[in-house]
Known about the structure:
This protein has helices at residues 27-36, 56-69, 76-88, 93-103, 106-120, 125-130, 138-150, 153-210, 216-230, 232-250, 253-264, 270-290, 295-301, 308-322, 327-333, 339-351, 354-410, and strands at residues 4-11, 17-23, 40-48. The chain is elongated, with a radius of gyration of 29 Å. The protein is mainly alpha-helical. The longest helix is centred in the middle third of the chain and has 58 residues, at 153-210. A hairpin with a 5-residue loop joins β1 (4-11) and β2. The termini are far apart. It has a three-stranded antiparallel beta sheet with strand order 2-1-3. Among the domains are: 4-69, no CATH class; 76-163, Receptor-associated Protein (Up-down Bundle), CATH 1.20.81.30.
Amino acid sequence: MTATGVRLRVQGRDGQSSWMRFAGLDAAAATRQARRDGLRVLEVEASSDAGEPAGDGSRHQAGKTAAATRGAVFDLLLFSQEMHSLLQAGLNLGEALNTLVEKSQGPTRALLSGVEASLREGKNFSDVLEAHPLQFPAVYVATVRSSERTGNLPEAMERFIAYQQQFDVLRKKLVSAAIYPALLVTVGGFVTLFLLGYVVPRFAAVYESSGRPMPWASGVLLSIGHLVYDHAVIAISLVAAVIVLAVWQLRQAATRQKLVELALRLPGLAPRADLFRLSRFYRALSLLLSSGIALPRAMGMVGGLLSSAQRKALAGARERIEEGGSVSQALVQFGLATPVAKSLVQVGERSGQLAPMFDRTARFHDEEMTRWIDATSKLLEPVLMLAIGLVIGLVVVLMYMPIFELAGSLQ
């Protein structure tokens, strides 16, 4: 009989990901072991230690698990809100899960059905959730696990809902601030293409019939207009292909991640990106500390919210804290504390209220980030309008330049 296990795709502290095989362990136990080793679990897959393909039943179950794990969309906040409401209404955990399974569809229904089935087998709710790291992050699992000790799952859900809602407010602010500039660039691009492909060729016919020499810049513009007009089908096809390719690429998580990383390396955005990551880090620490998780362990669980450089600094700060050092001094020494965070954490150390102080620090920086987004969007919109106006104005001026020269010669 072939010994079975699981394969995990994990990410180390250096940011590199790889597959690891765990023989004789289920997904929850393998995930716990990987996290104890300081690894971040990215994906779970059933496997066979002997390298042989599993039987038909095993393959079928693994396929169902993989389909649920890689489900298209799973709204963790909505799940938590609905679960919290049902538990507050007096339903027990099994009844609440069964209710959510009946109302769900597609990949979400498959995922929750698997969770419900594992729960019926007598497993802990946190262990069941830990087997699906893509849908239930480590912060969420730790919050649920702490509630299993206190017996107050609704309160743990409420804390996570507040944590996630505060993060979503800032994310929606970023998205809404980017919509108008994106529309401006899109409309400006289509107007420029219309001028080049339709208006410029008609001006070119008038100039060519006059037999007069044209300025060099106007000649280049008219040549481009002719090229677009003579090959309109090819030009439209290329534009459509570029749009389709761009949309397809943007739907890929890896592409979006690379674009975000490139954008966040820009000189003006890099410091703000680091501050945003630190704000999420402080908020997650506050959530875990409120759930009863020890600070060094909590710091290891939320390291994935930081950049690779910040994760290396976090390892040093965590080691210093485990040796008995001051939390605020360790964070300052390794560059993980802003001046505001330093002051508030020092107050938290003296009063024994670290969790509220981390939360207050995160809220302070979120408000600072919101003000920066508002100011940047107000500045960016007129700058983009000016740039688009300059491009369109340049095209118009180059089209009319021969007419200006003709009028000057007549005078």
